[in-house]
Design goal:
Two copies of one chain form a homodimer.
Chain A lengths: L5 H10 L6 H12 L4 E2 H8 L3 H13 L3 E5 L5 E5 L1 H4 L4 E5 L5 E4 L3 H17 L2 E14 H8 L1
Parallel strand pairs in A: 4-6
Antiparallel strand pairs in A: 1-3, 2-3, 4-5
The first copy, chain A, binds a DNA duplex (25 and 25 nucleotides) through helix 2 and helix 4.
Amino acid sequence: MSEPFEALVRARLQDADQRYTTGRQALVKVLGGAQRPLTAAEIVEVGDLAQSSAYRNLAVLEACGVVHRVSSTDEFARFELAEDLTDHHHHHLICAGCGDVADFTVPDRLESMLAEVAAELTASGDFAVEDHRFDLVGRCRDCQARASA
Amino acid sequence: MSEPFEALVRARLQDADQRYTTGRQALVKVLGGAQRPLTAAEIVEVGDLAQSSAYRNLAVLEACGVVHRVSSTDEFARFELAEDLTDHHHHHLICAGCGDVADFTVPDRLESMLAEVAAELTASGDFAVEDHRFDLVGRCRDCQARASA
DNA sequence: ATTTATGCAAATCGTTTGCAAACCT
DNA sequence: AGGTTTGCAAACGATTTGCATAAAT
């Protein structure tokens, strides 16, 4: 567990007067090892910690800007490391069939345009943009196969 | 209640062997009168129908492609009329403070680019895009004022 | 007449919380 | 020691569901 972002995580927690406990390290490790947002159930299973601790620590990590919450089409919240820790700006493919979420990236010229629109809106004063979501909702390969079966 | 889309709604329900009952008409009317997605609680209050009926009918209307479910940052689902009924393609400004959702539109050249990316992905076969979401998360005017107070 | 929708109250289930024991500094 | 975190079990709350009645065709 010597990921490049470990030090950053520690710093962010310290800034918020929070400890970087074993449980929290486990969460960061699990999320850092996944290449897609995970549900609380998945995290609990792999991370080997109580459900309540998982939720409580995810909340702490979210408040410190370490973890980001992702919503899908199903009833489960999903969690991933904040983008500025992984340095991997991405968007989500959300499967309307199974709820699974996968990461994907878009061309730079599209990102610039998204940023431009956001900047204009913030400049207007009506809405201060903090983040953008560009998600595609559809069917993953598995659910396409399932539908045509 | 003679909105231009009333006939379309009726047709869609009929296609799914569903009745266009008074309760469902009330829901469509309420959603048609709002210029933003509404929570179930808001709908129940204005629409004067039981909560269970509201949820059940929203589910039916959603399955028929009449209503669209929108997720925000809070725990409440929000509902709006499907875009192809209102003929008003738009995106959402999601307030991270109060959870409120407002509609907004983006320049055509951005929409084309979004569509292009979606089409490429679908062509690849890995993911069949059915819909895109471009949402901006931030602070509405009220929550900006509240934060600086 | 028969099928479907309604309202009420109870159940469901992801998530949150109270509390006593274990942990860190 | 003093404050924080943990795990368990109970509570919470938005949404769903069972069932008897009312409405629609």
